[in-house]
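FAQ: What does the model actually see?

It sees only this:
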Amino acid sequence: MSLQIVIRSLVSVIVLPGVAAVLIPWLILGPASGPDGAAWVGLLPLGFGLVIFTWCVFEFATRGRGTLAPWDAPRRFVASGPYRLVRNPMYLGVGSVVLGEAILFGSLSLLGYLAALAVIWHLFVILWEEPSLERTFGDEYRSYRESVPRWLPRMP
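And it is asked to produce this:
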């Protein structure tokens, strides 16, 4: 993997999910105290989300030769790794991180934010992302769309 794709990937991670999963939750929480008692269970979805998200970024960089950013999207179609099970694992990974943060900090506000993110992501995917992928990758994407679910992972 070239240094250039690593830098492009890092920039896209900071700009997009960095804002959605770090900056905005921090702004919502304000000065929050640390986790209490069973709240540490929030580390499970948070860690799972980080693993899935990182795997997706790696797949985009190595196989697709691009990043998660719409302005620097993969040049080749990516249907490997977590993309074999679900069409939008990156959103699910970021959502899992926010869910983990909500549990860790016992924040209903973060759960509300996650619900808003889910609606925004769904609308973005159906109104812009899927039509764009179909225009770019044609039959390859149409075939993939017919065999892999959008949000609920299919078990192999």
